[in-house]
Amino acid sequence: MPKNDFSHVDQWVFDLDNTLYPPQARLFDQIEVKMTQYVMEALGVDRDRADHLRTHYWATYGTTLTGLMREHDVDPGPYLTEVHEISLDHLEIDVDLASHIQALPGRKIVYTNGSAPYAERVLAARGLSGLFDAIYGVEHADFRPKPELAAFEMVFAKDGISTERGAMFEDDPRNLAVPHALGMRTVHVAPDPHEADHIHHHTDDLTHFLGQLHAK
């Protein structure tokens, strides 16, 4: 990994789920159960239909919530509260990750398709509280999700991000296309590489990747 790829970067944007914690924690297993239950109750459908809609809306819109809002006028507030009421017991504090994030030069933010209060809980469980200058959830993009251009534009405008000096870390390759188009360094954080022109780097270990940036 050429370190000079990041020599100009002083604005760091991190996704949350399966990015700032490893996917082995399987938090989304809990969230998906909650989402399916919410769809069942909100739309009056059985579990199989609700599970189908949950995955269909995620694939079509970027999040299940967006599909529920656009096709069924579901209120996002109660949904976001309910689906993120999960156990974080499987998360472990990562002292090395905290150290590497703290050492990054410039501004650091979290931007998630989840809610900001949920992000704060996760960061606390990982020992990452207080390391970021701001935390943005889908509510800060008027409930527009990544990968929509308008969502990124709203959050980056709120924060004053200069994308040509930025880097984006994200587990969903779809959500790196816009940052790449806006001139950011893009890092796909996932167990398996995803080959695409809009992905500059891949890592299955964010802690190690950031440590390499600091290595002499």
From TrEMBL:
Q: Which domain of life is it from?
A: Bacteria
SUPFAM superfamilies assigned:
HAD-like (SSF56784)
Tell me the InterPro entries matching this sequence: HAD-like_sf, HAD_sf, Pyr-5-nucltdase
Question: Which Pfam family would be a valid example here?
Answer: Hydrolase
Q: How is this protein named in the record?
A: Pyrimidine 5'-nucleotidase
